[in-house]
């Protein structure tokens, strides 16, 4: 094993416990102690608190199944806007302690606190516990924190005492003892197939893994396996990165509506609204795409898909709307009730000047691009979809398919004076228990 505690890195992994459900409990104290599930608008369990998990609720259960195993549960729609705002506050708290913070996802991240014992006048363990306490006091949500000399060890530690836990592995003896208790399948980066492969070679625990010579592991798992071998031995291989995340490799927009419908006009309008939303986000991130996929999901959760390659990359909604509508014709079936529409795209590239084909109408392509930019400016001022495709205008006649108030996140219906359904102040709204 590598160096001693005095020279090793001190890396934290901070992981939100049942993050979406925990945020809902924080927003509404009356939910404390109750089984809480989010995902009402999707018809499936997206997130659940530990009380719901103890009752047998698991991710992706249909709400009918949820009600069967947990009749007294509280089912709420996802409020992604508020979850994102709370996430930003979570990482802001971590950055009070150290500038070296990596946002791995909406509810988990890494922090490098190496060398901060003297300036903060605390041990590494005390720094981690102070972070935990501050998040709980200011946001009302529990997080689990792991402390180790590498990101891999820290992540295993954070899951060791969930929920609302803390676990630290410091020093060579402590690490060896800990790895003997960790199964290979508990290591991030080792999935079911790799676990089976390692088992064929007598490797069942993390200690078995690091006890093999590095060339043996490299032969089995390649470069990534070798890096993981070093991380598990306490070496700092994967640095905590404060850089902005790379451009998205893919992008999608989905809409679930209730009750399911077989109305072709509504389904077409909703799919094109998905397209609009996807391309708004695409332009906001300075990206463009060269392909598009559309999909439908029916009331029995069966999926239908179709895709097309574009003649060139674009970020213009108008250029792709006809393609999306034609793809829908291929998969839409009469007398089938649909509950979800969606648009997806991958192979995204940075947006830039339009590179036209030899016989393409350059004036039209540039006009489509300018129209999209104008639409973004109008919508930024007056609200998303104020200026929209004419073919989506019929959605106003089908409000019954967009769910009742119970299918909308509270932030959409409990507005602060001056807010609209589309435009909100960037602050979460907490209910105060009286």
Give a short overview.
By secondary structure, the protein is of the alpha+beta class.
**Topology pattern, helix = H, strand = E:** EHEEHHEHEEHHEHEHHHHEHEEHEEHH
Tally of helical segments: 15
Count of beta strands? 13
Helix/strand structural class: alpha+beta
What is the makeup of the main sheet? 5 strands, mixed
| Shape annotation | globular
Chain-wise SSE layout:
Blueprint: E1 11-16, H1 19-27, E2 36-38, E3 47-48, H2 50-54, H3 63-69, E4 74-76, H4 80-97, E5 101-105, E6 108-112, H5 117-120, H6 124-139, E7 143-148, H7 151-160, E8 166-168, H8 172-179, H9 192-200, H10 206-211, H11 214-232, E9 250-261, H12 264-284, E10 287-298, E11 303-314, H13 317-331, E12 338-346, E13 349-350, H14 362-382, H15 410-413
Parallel strand pairs: 2-4, 7-8
Antiparallel strand pairs: 1-6, 1-7, 2-3, 5-6, 9-12, 10-11, 10-12, 10-13
Description:
With 434 residues, this protein is of the alpha+beta class. The protein has a domain at 250-403: Dna Ligase, domain 1. Helix content is 40%, strand content 18%. The chain has helices at residues 19-27, 50-54, 63-69, 80-97, 117-120, 124-139, 151-160, 172-179, 192-200, 206-211, 214-232, 264-284, 317-331, 362-382, 410-413, and strands spanning 11-16, 36-38, 47-48, 74-76, 101-105, 108-112, 143-148, 166-168, 250-261, 287-298, 303-314, 338-346, 349-350. A hairpin with a 4-residue loop joins strand 10 and strand 11.
């Amino acid at each position: 094993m590598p160096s001693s505690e005095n020279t090793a890195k001190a890396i934290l992994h901070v992981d939100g416990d049942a993050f979406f459900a925990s945020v809902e409990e924080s927003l509404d104290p009356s939910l404390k102690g109750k089984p809480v599930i989010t995902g009402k608008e999707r018809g499936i369990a997206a997130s659940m608190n530990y009380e719901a998990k103890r009752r047998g609720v698991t991710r992706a259960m249909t709400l009918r199944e949820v009600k069967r195993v947990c009749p007294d549960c509280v089912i709420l729609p996802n409020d992604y806007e508020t979850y994102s705002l709370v996430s930003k506050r979570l990482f802001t708290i971590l950055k009070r302690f150290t500038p070296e913070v990596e946002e791995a996802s909406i509810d988990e991240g890494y922090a490098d606190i190496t060398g901060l014992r003297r300036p903060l006048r605390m041990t590494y363990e005390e720094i981690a516990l102070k972070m935990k306490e501050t998040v709980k006091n200011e946001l009302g949500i529990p997080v689990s924190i792991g402390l180790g000399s590498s990101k891999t060890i820290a992540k295993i530690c954070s899951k060791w005492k969930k929920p609302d836990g803390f676990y630290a592995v410091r020093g060579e003896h402590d690490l060896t003892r800990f790895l003997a208790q960790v199964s290979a399948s508990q290591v991030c980066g080792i999935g079911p197939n790799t676990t089976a492969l390692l088992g064929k070679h007598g490797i069942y625990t993390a200690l078995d893994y690091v006890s093999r010579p590095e060339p043996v592991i490299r032969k089995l798992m390649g470069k990534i396996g070798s890096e993981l071998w070093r991380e598990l031995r306490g070496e700092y291989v994967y640095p905590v990165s404060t850089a902005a995340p790379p451009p998205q490799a893919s992008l999608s927009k989905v809409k679930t509506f209730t009750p399911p419908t077989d109305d072709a006009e509504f389904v077409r309008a909703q799919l094109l609204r998905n397209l609009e939303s996807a391309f708004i986000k695409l332009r906001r991130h300075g990206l463009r795409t060269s392909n598009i996929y559309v999909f439908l999901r029916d009331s029995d959760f069966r999926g239908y898909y179709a895709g097309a390659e574009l003649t060139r990359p674009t970020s213009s909604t108008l250029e792709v709307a006809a393609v999306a509508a034609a793809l829908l014709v291929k998969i839409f079936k009469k007398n089938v009730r649909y509950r979800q529409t969606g648009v997806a795209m991958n192979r995204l590239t940075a947006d830039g000047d339009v590179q036209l084909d030899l016989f393409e109408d350059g004036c039209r392509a540039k006009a489509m691009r300018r129209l999209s930019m104008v639409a973004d400016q109008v919508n930024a001022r007056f609200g998303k979809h104020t200026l929209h495709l004419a073919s989506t205008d019929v959605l106003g006649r089908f409000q019954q398919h967009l769910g009742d108030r119970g299918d909308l996140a509270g932030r959409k219906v409990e507005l602060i004076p001056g807010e609209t359904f589309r435009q909100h102040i960037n602050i979460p709204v907490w209910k105060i228990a009286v």
